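job 3f2a | input accepted
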Amino acid sequence: MITSLPIKDKSGGRAAITVTPFKPAIRCTEPHRHNGYFELIFLNAGEGSHIIDGRPYPVQPPVLFVVRRHQVHCWELTTPGQGYVLIIRKDFVDQLTDGRLRSLFASISEHSCLPLEQSRSVEPLWTALLDELPTSHEEVPELVEWILKALLGKLIALARPSVPPIRQSGSLYDQFLHLLDNGKTLKRTVQHYAHLLHTTPQNLNNACRKAVDLPATGILENSLATEAKRLLLYTNSTVAEISFSLDFKDPSHFVKYFKRITGQTPQAFRQS
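job 3f2a | predicted structure (272 res):
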């Protein structure tokens, strides 16, 4: 019985950044999630699907896939993929002093799939990153950060459709998303997160509306619903067990909550 999602760690232990060629042997993988880092997967060859949080994305190179921390993904490739995998640990991004690079990460991580206009101009940057990154690299050389900044900027420029203008990271809204993404267990009240951020629910709500025109409660509800869907799709946990893990005291309340947001009961969603 699967009661929790498999977690894989391909980050090379304590390595802040890892770059490797995409393994052509990868065809079909079991659904799994990563902890402590996110992946950028660039493919310039291959066919099939990349499934992220239950949504299939067609592999139509050139394309960039972004798998954020806690997302569940798997591959269903019909022909071998070719490209690169960039693994970036959370603590590397947290400690960045380069505001532009932090903003590039924030902008690109809002997407799961970015079709690219062409790959010719980005492939040399992937090669340079692979060449310049030392094999033992708890500390990332400054040159690697420069290449990384150029690579992310070029990927965003080549995206189809275009990526919205880069938002300055470090805002109250970004800190809220960081807490939602990195908390081991989600809590159901905005007040809880406002307290952690040393602000008021009203200030947090205003920051969210300014950033994405959604109230803080709406963003929190989306996070809870997304995690509930992952647990329903990829584990055998009961609806009651899932409800308790998501800070609901009463499973019937969770069922009503889930149906209000998704239009389905948890059981109907699981069976669909």
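job 3f2a | The first helix runs from residue 90 to 94.
job 3f2a | closed
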